[in-house]
Each structure stands twice: as C-alpha cells, then as structure tokens.
Write a structure and sequence with these properties.
Low-confidence stretches: none
Structural class: alpha+beta
Helix content: 25-40%
Strand order of the largest sheet: 9-10-20-11-12
Number of strands: 28
CATH superfamily of the largest domain: Bira Bifunctional Protein, Domain 2
RNA sequence: CGGGGUAUAGUGUAACGGUAGCACGAGACGUUUGGGACGUUUUAGUUAGGGUUCAAAUCCCUGUACCCCGACCA
C-alpha cells in the first residue's frame, strides 16, 4: 500500500484525553479512533492488526475442529431468563432496548445462552456430539467505567468458542486441547513467553476455571506464582493461613470498652489505642442470598476476599450490608462492628489471621467504642473453625512450603470455563445416549479478548519512539521509505508485492526525518530505505524496528531474506 | 455507583473580567531533502444552555463529555 493512499495521519502530540500508553500510541499512529469513552473504531492500520490476530486465532481453533459461525448481536429476553441472567441485578453490563413492537431485546455481551439455545435444534443424539463452534463477535458491555484504552472498552472484539460434549471425560479432553490451542495462539501473536495459564475460581460446578494472563505493567490483576512450581493462581484462590505473631506468655487482661470518637481505619485506631495493628480486628457484614447475614472477622491490617467468602458460604449472591442495615443490626454506625454480642441469626466466620491472639481489639457494636483485651474463651467463645477469607497480597506466604508467593501484575487475555451440565440444564439442551436415555450436554466456554490482546501487545513492546509490532501481527511486514529515489522505489515496491510481501511504501513528499519518525511510531518490523546514500553504498538499507542500525543489501538478498520471515 | 479533576481550531497549548494568540496539522508559493527543516501566506476555535456584568474563554448555576482513584468485572 502506498502511504499517500492511507487516509490516516500520524500526530505529533499525544491526545490529552487518553492516559493509557496503548491508546496514546495507537491514536497518534492512526490505528484507532476514539468514538467515546471505551469505544474505539479501527482504522486501516489497526484493522489490519486486528485481522491478523483474528486469523491466527481462527487457524488455531480450526485445528481443534471448531467451526466458525457468526451469531446475531441482538438477543432475546426469553433466552436469558432461562438462566436468570436477564435481570440487571444479576448481570450489570447489559445494554437493552425494545423492538417497535415493544419486545425487549438485549445487545450481546456474551453468547453462551443464545448459542446453547440454538444448539437445541442441532443436538439430539450422542451421534451429534461433540460439537465445537467459535465466532468473532463485537461484544457490548455497559461497563460502569471503561479504562486503559482498548484494554477495557464497552465495545470490544472477542473470539468466543463453545464446546458441547457427551460426558465429563469428553469435555475434559477437549478442554485440554483448547489449552494447547490457546498456548499456540499466544505464542504466535508474540506474547507466549509472558502469558501464563492461571487457576481461577471455577464457580459452582468445577473446582477451577482457567485464565490466560499476560504479565504487563498495565495489568489490572495480580497473579501469584506458587513457590517451586510452574503454577500460577488468580488472587481469589490463593491459599493462605495467616499466622499472627503472639507472645505466648502475655497475660490475659480485663476486657475494656474504650471511647474513641470518629476513629475509623485500623491505622488510626491502633495508634490511638497504642496497640499493634495486628491486635486489631476488622469485622465486615454481608448479606447473602437476600436472607443470610454474614459477619466476617479478619485481622485489622487485612481485607476480606469476597470470592473466598462466596465459596465458603456457598453463595453467588453476596453484597456488603447497607449502612442502614448495619445500624439496625449492631446499633452502631459503620466502622464499629464486632463479633461480640451480634444477634444469633448472624453467621460468623473467623479468618486464620484472627486466631492465636491474646488481648485483641474489636469493634464494640456501639458508635465510637472499641473493645480491647478481648480473649477467646473469656469474652467470646473460641470459634470451632477458622477459615481462609483474607485477600491475598504481595509478600504472602504459601502455607505448604512456608515460602513467599511471587506476584506479577497481569492482564487477562483469555479465559476458559468448564460449565459441566449447568448451562445445558438451564437452557434445556439434552441429547439421547446409546441406551436411549436423555442426558444433559456438557458445555465448555473459551474466550480470547482479541482487541485486548492487541492492546497488550501495543503496550508491552512499545518503546519511546512508538509501537513495535511482532511480525506475525504487524499491519505490514515492510515499511519502504524512499528518499529522492521514487523511480527505484516504485520498482522495488512492485517486486515486493509480486513476492507477496506486505509493504507500506512511504511515497509522500516529506523530509527524511519525518518519514523515519513516522515509521518508528507505526512500528512495522522491517524498514527498507532507498536513497541516494544507500545507492552509493551499493543497494538498499534494511533495518529491523528493534535494532539501531541497518545493513546494506541487494534487492535479491532483500527478497530472499524477507521471504524467509 | 461513590470520590476527585478537566473542557479554547483536526491535535497540543496560551490569554488579570476588557482585541481569542502560539505551535503542529491541512492548503498555496519558494528554498530544502538521512532523524519531526525554513520563509511568505491561507485555513480553522472558547462543550451546551442559562445567569451576573457596560463587558465573560475567564465569575455563578444547570446539563453534557472526557480523564483519574475506588467499587464492580464468567
């Protein structure tokens, strides 16, 4: 492609309404256009990158016998009601509208339900299984807050794949094949080395789901590497058994109620009471399934992991108790709750970190009051069991080995999930097995955030001059820059094209400096310069984007070299 | 959804309540041609609505948009 034909221009200044590196660079280089917060259009260069990434995903999915389809973006309410996911309180990212007739419709934020519903028409017998289908879809999600450029938008492209299997074993086998395909995909797009499969919460049906996380500074997630193993964990499933240092000879003191007006926050509190922060206790109250009230105690310097709590109490629906309810329940404002004297209907859970302490502090359930010198077996019954409810953080210790988890900031670029028969049961998708018995189908769901992958790559490889694309997904392989040698360049341009080498020819009437600067900004892997200077030296200058200096070679050598890559 | 911030030309940035200016981009002409050149010239703007004032980009109110932090995030 000739650059004069490219309607986009590069910008010298970074847009002021973008903070993230990926959006700044992609906009400056003309890959994307921002429509609104979290919504971007893909311009010729960006589109080419996107298509390259999609093609690689396509090839890898086809290799594991998945068939490509494209589903509608409009979805019907009835289908989603079957699995109880139409409700805005259950799924909070819905975009919804109505047909002229008044019928409710939703804009697809996921396609598990519609596709499973569709499969009812196609899966009847065990002979129809297994089936795997995938698509590239623009997902629409009404995110409360879009951020990080194209990494987390309201509209984004996702490759989603769904597998339908006869039984657990067949699904498990396909799941493993999908993992292999995913790894190949990440390798091919250039982020394989930093992309790890990470164990994550599996929800109700399976113990684990898996995420593919790419280690990157922009990452929103913290992943934990298990000591001495090549195994990574998502924050919410990191096992902890936090021990608190305690002098065993400390003598139990008399419990006291201390007045401390407006002391909110453990740091301030500990200072005021002149005790160690580890003596303080945080009591958090939750509402589960609308009916249960849960009180959780963790050591003051730690936080509750709601994911872990959900698992312990076996609910999906969990939220913090409202201010009014806390007041009603404890008789105190938020910030003074304690495990002492809570009504009997409140379920109480203690984290390991609260165990083994002598003379600890706790909210008094009385505004502005805290109890100190609380002791198990004296003021409050020692819990029969302690749990792992603490949110993991950097520096935490794996209970098994006693060694620290290593942590990395990472961004989730893929996710695979084993639904078992749960989804099929919701959607009433079943098949008849060899013996004529009706059985639910096993569903696996596999996603790759295509646009997010592009964002991560843009961000990870960029240097101070601009973007640096891996060869496999670069918009063009070669950036041909001609300086006062347009005739020769035109010939070379044709030769490159005849050899099926994707080339962007900067045939603009611009000064060399500007062409080089633009070339670096756009980030095409190979730069080929044709100029009086290069001719004097005997040919063409070839330079990789990642290298500082080029080398002079002949046209023949150039073609041979580029063909190899 | 809570908190904070910002809004001036396609982009980036100035202007005490008193003439909206500069740079990049884009157009024209000329000089230039290996790291965002130079000269002359043209183009194009105060987020929307209301208020205060002789006078508003500037002060006030309301809306909108965008950014950041937190919450949320199959």
């Amino acid at each position: 492609m000739k650059q004069t034909q490219l309607f986009t221009k590069t910008q010298k200044f970074t847009p002021k309404d973008e903070q993230s590196k990926n959006a700044k660079l992609l906009i400056r280089a003309g890959f994307i256009h921002k429509e609104m917060a979290g919504v971007y259009s893909y311009l010729p260069l960006g589109f080419r990158v996107l298509e390259k990434i999609k093609q690689i995903a396509r090839e890898e999915m086809q290799k594991i016998d998945s068939e490509e389809i494209i589903m509608s973006g409009l979805q019907s309410k009835q289908i989603w009601q079957k699995s109880n996911r139409w409700d805005d309180n259950v799924v909070d990212v819905w975009f919804k509208s109505k047909l002229k007739s008044g019928k409710d419709i939703g804009f697809g934020w996921s396609h598990e339900e519609p596709i499973t519903n569709m499969m009812i028409n196609h899966i009847n017998s065990y002979k129809d299984l297994p089936v795997s289908v995938f698509q590239f879809q623009t997902k629409l999600r009404n995110e409360e807050r879009a951020k990080s450029g194209i990494m987390r938008g309201r509209e984004f492209v996702m490759k989603d794949m769904y597998s339908y299997c006869k039984n657990k074993e067949e699904l498990e086998e396909y799941y493993q094949r999908a993992i292999i395909a995913y790894n190949k995909f990440y390798n091919r797009v250039g982020i394989g080395e930093d992309t790890h499969i990470v164990f994550a919460d599996g929800g109700a049906f399976t113990e684990f789901s898996h995420e593919f996380q790419t280690i990157a500074e922009v990452g929103e997630d913290l992943i934990f590497k298990v000591p001495n193993k090549d195994e990574y964990l998502n924050q919410e499933i990191v096992k902890l058994k936090i021990e608190t240092k305690q002098d065993k000879n400390e003598i139990n003191k008399e419990m006291q109620e201390i007045f401390g007006k407006g002391l909110i926050g453990v740091g301030v509190l500990a200072e005021f009471l002149k005790i160690d922060v580890e003596k303080t206790t945080k009591t958090i109250l939750f509402k589960a399934d609308d009916t249960r009230i849960i009180a959780v105690a963790v050591r003051g310097d730690r936080d509750v992991d709601e994911g872990k709590l959900r698992k312990i109490i076996r609910v999906d629906d969990l939220e913090l108790l409202s201010e009014e309810s806390i007041k009603e329940l404890t008789g105190a404002k938020v910030g003074y709750a304690g495990m002492l004297n809570l009504p009997n209907n409140v379920e109480k859970y203690w984290d390991y970190s609260t165990d083994g302490r002598i003379n600890f502090e706790m909210g008094a359930n009385k505004t502005d009051y805290h109890n100190i010198n609380v002791n198990f077996g004296v003021n409050i019954e020692k819990p029969k069991e302690f749990y792992d409810i603490t949110k993991a953080r950097d520096g935490d210790i794996e209970p098994l080995s006693g060694e620290k988890y290593k942590t990395y900031k990472a961004t989730e670029v893929g996710n695979i999930f084993n639904f078992g028969t749960e989804k099929a049961k919701d959607m009433e998708l079943s098949f008849v097995d060899e013996r004529g018995e009706n059985k639910p189908v096993y569903l696996g769901s596999y996603g790759i955030g295509i646009t997010r992958v592009m964002g991560v790559i843009a961000e990870k490889f960029a240097d101070e001059k601009g973007l640096v694309w891996p060869e496999s997904i670069a918009p063009f392989k070669v950036h041909l820059i001609s300086i006062s040698q347009d005739k020769k360049a035109e010939e070379l341009y044709k030769i490159l094209k005849d050899n099926d080498i994707e080339v962007l020819w900067d045939n603009r009437d611009k000064r060399p400096g500007e062409k080089f600067a633009d070339s670096d900004l756009i980030g095409i892997p190979y730069r080929v310069v044709l100029s009086n200077k290069s001719m004097e030296k005997g040919g063409i200058e070839l330079k990789k984007r990642t290298e500082a200096d080029g080398k002079i070679i002949s046209t023949y050598e150039l073609i041979e070299l580029l063909k190899k890559y």
